[in-house]
Design goal:
Elements (H helix, E strand, L loop, with lengths): L2 H8 L2 E3 L8 E2 L9 E4 L16 E4 L9 E4 L3 H11 L15 E2 L4 E2 L4 E2 L4 E2 L4 E2 L4 E2 L4 E2 L4 E2 L4 E2 L4 E2 L3 E3 L4 E2 L4 E4 L4 E4 L2 E4 L5 E4 L4 E2 L4 E3 L5 E4 L4 E2 L4 E2 L4 E2 L4 E2 L4 E2 L4 E2 L4 E2 L4 E2 L4 E2 L4 E2 L4 E2 L8 E3 L4 E2 H12 L1 H25 L1
Parallel strand pairs: 2-3, 3-4, 4-5, 6-9, 7-10, 8-11, 9-12, 10-13, 11-14, 12-15, 13-16, 14-17, 15-18, 16-21, 17-22, 18-23, 21-24, 22-25, 23-26, 25-28, 26-29, 27-30, 28-31, 29-32, 30-33, 31-34, 32-35, 34-36
Antiparallel strand pairs: 1-5, 19-20, 36-37
Length: 343
């Protein structure tokens, strides 16, 4: 695709030659002479002179830049568009594979695609243009909206509801029984989980992640929430809209999460915790009590980031502090001994 054609699609202001053939996009350091690169921070502008790229996406013109520039309002948004333009063109799944097993009471829109080895149970409803990849299993009376994508080996248990425009990546599981037991008569007895799971519109669930069904009511993942790989969301959790959860996040049962909350890698919560709108949990932070709206926290138990960083600073200096305390202890003993001798 000509660089000038890309500029037109991005509605970008072009500076420089637009007749270069572009075959993809890459980083400043790795881009070849047929690729675009991108500049998201002015501090990296000086490295453009070392790049072989044919052009660069920028949000403002860069002085003394030899390569062509596409000036856009938002580099990250433009980058997404360019990556979509050059995404691998895979063969689309179409129709219903002959090895799929679909119960007669299922209601499937005629536009959906169903891969090999899929099982769709009784009373399932699937909306228009949804794609169900190979070896998926959809449980009884579950509902899936329009334009969803279920990659291979996804399991949706019974009585779950998936909204529109949702993506469930390979091996994710929606609606498994929650981890709830009572110790009765010398053994752990599983508490029945009779509720369901609701994924609102635009939710994305990463590979090998699980969302457990509720004991009663529903576990709810708010619209626009994006969940990374290897994430565990327990029974009766309710999240707001547009939350982000990085890999290895674990959210315990009945936690309430506000809108726009960010969970960094391996962070999470204990059960029945409330996390306010816009809060940020840093890597490995665990909320054991209420997190206020907009608060950024670190540590276990999670607490305000400034306090935690001060504590970590002290912790790093503990060997030196211990040595100083030991020396002070010796001095105090000498002073007390001298005082006792005088007495």
């Amino acid at each position: 695709m000509l660089l000038s054609e890309i500029a037109t699609k991005l509605k970008a202001r072009r500076i420089g030659d637009g007749q270069r053939d572009i075959t993809g996009v890459n980083t400043i350091a790795d881009a070849s002479g047929s690729e675009l690169c991108f500049l998201t921070s002015a501090k990296h502008a000086k490295t453009l002179g070392q790049s072989a790229a044919a052009g660069v996406l920028v949000d403002k013109p860069v002085d003394d830049c030899a390569m062509a520039q596409l000036v856009v309002a938002n580099v990250n948004a433009a980058l997404i568009t360019v990556l979509e333009l050059f995404a691998p063109k895979l063969i689309a799944l179409e129709g219903v594979h002959p090895t799929a097993v679909i119960e007669s009471t299922a209601e499937l829109d005629k536009t959906i695609a169903v891969g090999a080895g899929v099982y769709i149970s009784h009373g399932v409803k699937v909306g228009p243009y949804t794609v169900i990849g190979p070896n998926c299993s959809i449980g009884e009376k579950s509902e899936i909206g329009s334009q969803c994508r279920l990659d291979s080996n996804v399991v949706v248990y019974h009585h779950c509801r998936i909204g529109n425009d949702c993506i469930l990546q390979s091996n994710s599981t929606i609606g498994s029984i929650g981890f709830g037991y009572s110790f009765i008569d010398g053994q752990h007895r599983l508490i029945p989980h009779n509720g369901g799971v609701i994924l609102e519109d635009g939710v994305e669930i990463g590979s090998n992640s699980c969302v457990d069904r509720a004991k009663f009511g529903n576990t709810v993942i708010g619209a626009g929430t994006k969940v990374d790989n290897l994430v565990q969301i327990a029974h009766n959790v309710r999240t707001g809209k547009c939350c982000l959860m990085a890999g290895h996040v674990g959210i315990s049962g009945s936690t309430k999460v506000g809108n726009g909350v960010v969970f960094a890698g391996a962070s999470g919560s204990s059960d029945h915790v409330e996390i306010g709108d816009g809060a940020v949990l840093g890597a490995q932070a665990v909320a054991t009590g209420k997190i206020e709206p907009g608060q950024t926290v670190l540590g276990l138990p999670a607490r305000d980031v400034r306090k935690e960083l001060k504590s970590k600073s002290v912790y790093r200096n503990l060997p030196e502090l211990a040595k100083e305390v030991k020396q002070l202890g010796k001095k105090v003993k000498k002073l007390e001994a001298a005082k006792n001798n005088k007495n």
